[in-house]
Fold this protein.
Amino acid sequence: MITFLPIIILIFSVIIHEVSHGYMADHLGDPTARLQGRLTLNPLKHIDPVGSIIVPIITSLAGFTFGWAKPVPYNPYNLKDGRRGEFLIAIAGPLSNLSLAIIFGLLTRFLLSSTGTITPFIEFISYIVIINIVLTVFNLVPIPPLDGSKLLLAFLPNQYGRIRFILERYGPVFALIFIIFIWQIISPVVPYIFSLIIGVGM
């Protein structure tokens, strides 16, 4: 049975993630996202048919919710700050998800301490916290096309261009291997961060 609530939360969380990339790029001198109308929370501008609809539905049937939005484009040649600009654009996405997790996590913590019971609203915002923690941790992994790889490559010396080429070319393969074999090793950090913010376990 599909639960659409996590899918809806996921879609808006990944949209905020992508819009954050676009706003940072625009702030640093690249108007590409703005000119393409991507600096908006309108889902129609960001939904990827596969990553935002098909994959979330399939993964929800498997017991977890996963997906992505269309990446917000930027032109590195327009950036004022070169590689530092690329770093700031890359980190903006995970930081937006971490901010959402902290804001709604603190709200959840306050409501739990006030009411002492888990209401439907508390359950709803706790979903926001969990999904955004997962997005933060997952996107910081240094494997293309995830943001973590862009953080790494932003400071990789030019002489390591071959490594950059290999990582970018075979990134989807590395990402698939990571999801299947390595994510289970890293995923326990998610409930740890959740309990750290909210004060109770998942």
